[in-house]
Write a structure and sequence with these properties.
The chain is an alpha+beta fold and 239 residues long. The chain has 4 helices and 16 strands.
Amino acid sequence: MVKWLLMILLGMILSGMALLFFLRRIWFYRDPTRVPPEGENLIVAPADGKIVYIRPFNKGEVISEKLGRPIPITEITRGPAWGESGWLIGIYMSPLDVHFNYAPLAGKIVDIIHTPAAVNLPMVDLWEYIRLTYLRQVVDLFSHRYRLVNERLTLFLSHEHLNVALVEIADKFVNKISCFVRPGQEVAMGHKLSFIERGSQVDLIIFSQELEFLVKVGQQVYGARTPICRYFPGDREKK
């Protein structure tokens, strides 16, 4: 009887190890085919994940009530100011999401800025992680300090009618961010831009105020597939 129990226990342990290996080494690196939606003046999600905030900014700053001060957009991008007003959309990528990042619209990669960090802070605590990853609940991550101090890769993309910036923010346990494009490269909507390891976050900054949002906070989105908003061509913010 004891022998059978030990065999069952060993089988459960081996099955668990095999499942963990599959999730971490195979499933996590999956690369599904993504076809962007049809429609005029659309901006699509740059990554899979849950939308954790949609915030307007004016005069180059976005208000943070919990941090007690306005935050310059340049402090998030660690790059030049591309406009005084627009919108900031945060997408939290759990380990269960596809971790490739995609071009939210067609355009030219103008610049890529990598900002290292001495120490990366954890994005979420254990309860926030459970809520976001397994319970699929909304957690407002806007006022967490990791957004300002963690390692990041910022891609600046110029479109015919507006400018956007894509800020990929590393988590405490991220190994690396792999970038597949270079400055000066033209990309189509849905073009694969990069891959970011483990849990992480992408901030999409759109330098235009006049947008029609097609998603809301708490919604699950899919990179290169889910329309985020619709823009209006006459409202371009100049660099």
